[in-house]
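Lab channel / #folding
Pinned by the channel admin:
"Please post every new chain as: sequence first, then the structure tokens as a reply. Keep commentary short and put observations after the output so the thread stays searchable."

First post following the new format, from NK:
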Amino acid sequence: MGRKAFDNSIDYKEIGTRIRIMRLKLAVSQTECASKLGISQTHLSNIEHGRSGITLQMLCRVCDILQVSLDYLVRGAEKTDEKKHSEITIDEVVRVIKMLKGIEEK
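Reply from TO:
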């Protein structure tokens, strides 16, 4: 009772915007970031503008490269406790997998 309904919608445009913001804060070019991710600069641009989706595996790689939490990229949660947000919990990963599976099944 009183539990919030599970929201399985993923806003790829918001995720892309957060990726771009963090990339720019770290002064990393699109070309450099794309190279580290093993994708083309065009593909990264499409992700950043919400024109392409992104897999959980790719999201995790982005988190490593941009030194940001998965929670921040997916939900936009601000970092208030560095230790709390620097580690991805199993619950977060399971939640994101469920969201991604819901999108892929449609």
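NK: The helical segments are 12-25, 30-37, 41-48, 56-66, 70-75, 82-86, 90-104.
TO: also worth noting, The two ends are 29 Å apart (CA to CA).
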